[in-house]
């Protein structure tokens, strides 16, 4: 049997994306070599610099090309000279929509050796995953402005929820609960987070679909929380969560909170997934232009993102090897903090340290 060689598209993007992706690729290479997994990468020049040079965000030809890869490994986009929204909508959201990456998977896991900002919480308390819907909500529509910049200005920023879109993400969450029960011995529980007490139409749909799908999984414990209460619970009782399923915007906000309780945005990975299809993996953090190019950024999020990518491709051993190398690196105590500039090591040194444990 000839061995499969994966084709991975790499989009380092802007700012610290470039530095952290380099470390992620370093660790990926070591792990794939150790497991005898082969792959090739193609780098794409996408991001703020390209936009400023050419006026292009993501050319259609590149979008088409991306569809021919097994996965996309993404750094970050966002450039201080480009107005907000241009690159976000033109690159990141465009890929999410074009590839129908309806799942945004964001693990919230406190690793041993990482300082938790929550008093008395340990790695046993913080190990859950947020399943963020990724193609609907306020992200899917452009708003409408009437008489902008006048006293009569009206701004309409609508959100959309479809039954199909709601059902597929909720079903994914239940299936994931089962997978985590098998793989990680987790208890079978799914928490829905919404604002059904105010967004009675849109999130009313979410509630109904959640209850319908839950009936197919009677063995799974379920609960529904309003997002305000959920935010509080993330801080007070993170141990109550196993799988959290939520809407796009709430998921965006809650996963920054999630990143904070797992020790910081520097260690939070994510995957934009369409099961079985080409999917895109990116750290939760952005391009952080103020610290870019100085070796101050923590590459652990990007490194763990590479692990998620390999897990998605079915290369569980590679994924585990990367994750356990991160765990070992953290346990050396050499990484003093995950906060940019306070690590006590440079971005590259952290990458080297992790690679040395692969
Ligand atoms: C994220 C980011 C994006 C989002 C932005 C950059 C569009 O915050 O991936 O969490 O809101 O989804
Ligand atoms: Mn975000």
Which properties best describe this structure?
358 residues; alpha/beta; Isopropylmalate Dehydrogenase; 2 domains; 10-stranded mixed sheet; two-stranded antiparallel ribbon; 11 helices; binds 3-isopropylmalic acid; binds manganese (II) ion
Outline the fold blueprint.
Blueprint: E1 5-13, H1 16-35, E2 38-43, H2 48-54, H3 60-66, E3 71-76, H4 86-98, E4 103-109, E5 127-133, E6 144-146, E7 154-156, H5 163-184, E8 189-194, H6 202-216, E9 221-226, H7 227-236, E10 243-246, H8 248-261, E11 271-273, E12 279-281, H9 300-312, H10 316-331, H11 347-356
Parallel strand pairs: 1-2, 1-3, 3-12, 5-10, 8-9, 8-10
Antiparallel strand pairs: 4-5, 4-11, 6-7, 11-12
The protein binds 3-isopropylmalic acid and manganese (II) ion.
3-isopropylmalic acid (IPM) binds at residues 88, 92-93, 252, 284.
Q: Give the strand order of the largest sheet, numbering strands 1, 2, ... along the chain.
A: 2-1-3-12-11-4-5-10-8-9
Shape: globular
Which CATH first-tier class of the largest domain would you pick? Alpha Beta
Question: What is the second-level CATH architecture of the largest domain?
Answer: 3-Layer(aba) Sandwich
In the CATH hierarchy, the third-tier topology of the largest domain is known as: Isopropylmalate Dehydrogenase
- Overall helicity: 40-55%
Q: Point out poorly predicted stretches.
A: none
- Percent of residues in beta strands? 15-25%
Biggest sheet, open or closed, and with what strands and sense? 10 strands, mixed
Annotation field: number of helices: 11
Query: What's the multimeric state?
Result: single chain
Q: What letter string, H or E per element, gives the SSE order?
A: EHEHHEHEEEEHEHEHEHEEHHH
Alpha-carbon distance between the two ends: 27 Å
Structural class: alpha/beta
CATH homologous superfamily (4th level) name of the largest domain: Isopropylmalate Dehydrogenase
Q: Which ions and ligands are bound to the chains?
A: 3-isopropylmalic acid, manganese (II) ion
Overall pLDDT: 97
In total, the number of strands is 12
Return the domain count.
2
Our Rg estimate from Cα atoms comes to: 20 Å
């Amino acid at each position: 049997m000839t061995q499969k060689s994966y084709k991975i598209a790499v989009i380092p993007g802007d700012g610290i994306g470039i530095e952290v992706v380099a470390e992620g690729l370093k660790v990926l290479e070591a792990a794939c070599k150790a497991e005898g997994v082969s792959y090739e990468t193609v780098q794409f020049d996408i991001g703020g610099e390209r936009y400023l040079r050419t006026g292009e965000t993501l050319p259609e030809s590149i979008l088409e090309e991306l569809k021919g890869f097994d996965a996309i490994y993404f750094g970050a986009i966002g450039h201080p000279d480009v107005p907000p929204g241009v690159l976000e909508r033109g690159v990141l959201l465009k890929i999410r929509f074009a590839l129908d990456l309806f799942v945004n998977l964001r693990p919230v896991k406190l690793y041993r050796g990482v300082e938790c900002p929550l008093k008395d919480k340990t790695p046993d308390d913080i190990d859950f995953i947020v399943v963020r819907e990724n193609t609907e909500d306020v992200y899917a529509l452009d708003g409408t402005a009437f008489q902008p910049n006048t006293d009569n200005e009206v701004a309409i920023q609508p959100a959309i929820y479809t039954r199909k879109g709601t059902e597929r993400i909720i079903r994914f969450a239940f299936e994931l609960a089962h997978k985590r029960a098998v793989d990680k011995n987790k208890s079978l529980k799914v928490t829905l987070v919404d604002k059904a007490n105010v967004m009675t139409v849109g999130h009313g749909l979410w509630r109904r679909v959640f209850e319908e799908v839950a009936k197919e999984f009677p063995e799974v414990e379920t609960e529904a929380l309003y997002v305000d209460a959920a935010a509080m619970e993330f801080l007070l009782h993170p141990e109550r969560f196993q799988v959290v399923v939520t809407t796009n915007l709430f998921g965006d906000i809650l996963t920054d909170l999630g990143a904070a309780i797992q020790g910081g945005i520097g260690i939070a990975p994510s995957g934009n997934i369409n099961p079985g299809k080409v999917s895109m993996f990116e750290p939760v953090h952005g391009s952080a232009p103020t610290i870019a190019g100085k070796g101050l950024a923590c590459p652990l999020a990007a490194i763990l993102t590479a692990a998620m990518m390999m897990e998605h491709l079915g290369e569980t051993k590679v994924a585990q090897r990367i994750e356990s190398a991160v765990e070992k690196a953290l346990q050396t105590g050499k990484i003093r903090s995950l906060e940019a500039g306070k690590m006590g090591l440079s971005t590259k040194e952290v990458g080297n340290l992790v690679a040395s444990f692969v």
